[in-house]
Amino acid sequence: MQPYQPSLTENDKQKIRGILSNDSVILQRMHVLKDEAGHWMEKRGAIRVQQHAYQQAYSVDSLFIDHRK
Predict the structure, then answer these.
(1) What percent of the chain shows pLDDT beyond 90?
(2) Is-contact 58 64, C-beta < 8 A?
(3) What's the CA gap between 68 and 12, in Å, rounded?
(4) Which end of the chain is more exposed for a tag (fewer CB within 10 A), N or C?
């Protein structure tokens, strides 16, 4: 931005100040969304592991015993 600083108008500077004043709010929202996505991915992975146990292809004469933890 330094090379462009001499060509900035007062209107441009006001717009930049407005954007920078909302920077912390934007960053907080981005962190919340990132955390939500991370939790969703962890939950989805756990669901996939549980479903995978029940979707195994077993032979006709075999038994499946589900042990509770």
Answers:
(1) 42
(2) yes
(3) 64
(4) C
Phi, psi of 23 (to 5 degrees): -60, -45
Residues 6+ apart with CB under 8 A from 62: none
Residues written for the chain: 69
Conformational region of residue 35, where left means phi above 0, alpha means psi within -120 to 50, and beta covers everything else? alpha
Q: Say if residue 58's pLDDT is above 70.
A: no
Angle between helix 10-21 and 23-54 (nearest 10)? 40
Contacts of 16 (CB under 8 A, 6+ apart): 8
Half-sphere exposure at residue 44, Cβ-oriented, CA atoms within 13 angstroms: 6
The letter for the amino acid at 41 is M
| pLDDT of amino acid 42 | 93
